[in-house]
Amino acid sequence: xxxxxxxxxxxxxxxxxxxxxxxxxxxxxxxxxxxxxxxxxxxxxxxxxxxxxxxxxxxxxxxxxxxxxxxxxxxxxxxxxxxxxxxxxxxxxxxxxxxxxxxxxxxxxxxxxxxxxxxxxxxxxxxxxxxxxxxxxxxxxxxxxxxxxxxxxxxxxxxxxxxxxxxxxxxxxxxxxxxxxxxxxxxxxxxxxxxxxxxxxxxxxxxxxxxxxxxxxxxxxxxxxxxxxxxxxxxxxxxxxxxxxxxxxxxxxxxxxxxxxxxxxxxxxxxxxxxxxxxxxxxxxxxxxxxxx
Amino acid sequence: xxxxxxxxxxxxxxxxxxxxxxxxxxxxxxxxxxxxxxxxxxxxxxxxxxxxxxxxxxxxxxxxxxxxxxxxxxxxxxxxxxxxxxxxxxxxxxxxxxxxxxxxxxxxxxxxxxxxxxxxxxxxxxxxxxxxxxxxxxxxxxxxxxxxxxxxxxxxxxxxxxxxxxxxxxxxxxxxxxxxxxxxxxxxxxxxxxxxxxxxxxxxxxxxxxxxxxxxxxxxxxxxxxxxxxxxxxxxxxxxxxxxxxxxxxxxxxxxxxxxxxxxxxxxxxxxxxxxxx
Lengths: 293, 278
Known about the structure:
The complex is a heterodimer. Chain A is mainly alpha-helical. Chain A has helices at residues 2-12, 25-54, 59-67, 69-102, 108-120, 123-134, 141-146, 155-165, 169-181, 184-191, 196-225, 228-234, 244-253, 257-292. Chain A folds into two domains: 15-54; 58-292, Orthogonal Bundle (MetI-like fold). Chain A is 78% helix and 0% strand. Chain B has two domains: 15-44; 45-277, MetI-like fold (Orthogonal Bundle). Helix content of chain B is 76%, strand content 0%. In chain B, α3 packs antiparallel against α9 (182-211), α7 (141-166) packs antiparallel against α10 and α11 (230-239) runs antiparallel to α12 (243-277). The longest helix of chain B is centred in the C-terminal third of the chain and has 35 residues, at 243-277. Chain B is globular and about 70 Å long. Chains A and B meet through α1, α2, α4, α5 and α6 of A and α1, α3, α4, α5 and α6 of B.
């Protein structure tokens, strides 16, 4: 931990620390106080609220809410969804980054823009498009009904909608990273006689491992926490098509506030773990980059 | 789709494999489903489409979504600049934690943020109960704005921070040598450099706010004409099985998002050019 702190200290230590280039201490401390107050009000207070509300009816209610069969079913579905969506989107991200950064071809910029597309689409619309495609009145809905395949208001719909909203995460992390690393390492390996997969596993992967992990962690956080898109396609069937965020909504709307916040505390823990891993990986990546320079 | 027929020869393997997979995956998961939206809304005649997207309730929802997103993005513009400034320029205890917490709105599921903010700002909540008689935050447009401030918080900070970090100190130093006051240096030397990232962050927060759903539905109260946001209206239409109408509202919302995306791309290119020439 200490070296990471030192690392960021060095990063933040700009030349502008000279006396005539900083504000008077009074101004400085007022600015810091306002900034800290804003974060306290907008970010820290909501976190505290989750915890106090979760335990407001005591530990028994908290544990009961988490051990409830419907909550456990929702937890299982959330984990299963992430276990499918994250690896598939990781595979896509790797393929996209390889094609885009190692080769030159026409339409590259269009491809990069298209990959970012799901980020520009409202979560609700991300769910809607799959209802319009697979729903009973959807474009291929009648065919699906004929063949007894259920996608909307069922688990496949939840997984597909989650894949859509988490689609760009890994690719958009890897593309700039592999862009800066260039192709020399790989070309050297190939001219020394290494074959395709070997080049990837022995040369490329070690160079991008932290960035890859970073993208996967962000992808996972979104996959487990997605609400809007999943809500549209789920049908909210308890114990069957409810993910954790949807389970929280149901409990909240039934005025079971303590239980709702108890389940929320699990997702809050996920968010905190994500942030910690994220900042650890950021300093790892910084070290790797500076080690190369 | 352009398949790179004109690519320059590379000795690296795997182009057809990766490119084929990328185009297939992208088409199946993103392009075809998005096309379904356009096809479905085309089931309406132009007249019906126009009526669907200009119904008073629909127009009211666009107005609420746009106005609350705009207000939230403006608040984030000011506080985002302040946070970026404080985090780059000063050292203080707890700075590392504050820096990490900036990203919380990206990591915290929106439903959790939604119920937590609602509880805080409801009339009997910690903050809601502090309000003077008659002032309500939750279940009003003000509540929607608060939720959108939370959701959009990281954008301006994270776009401004790196630019502020890389700002050359010598220009500032020269200005100080010439006797310029700190405030004058800030407005004349530093701020102009920060305008492209500020605008990018603002547009990103604005675009995110227009589409946001999870954190808003709980705090909004969802009264038609008053606190009903456009994404919620899409859900309502879906629940009434008015698929084509839902698609029409969504198409308009998407067009707004894409226009913003274009503006963001333009701003980023502008800012890159400036950085390179500067």
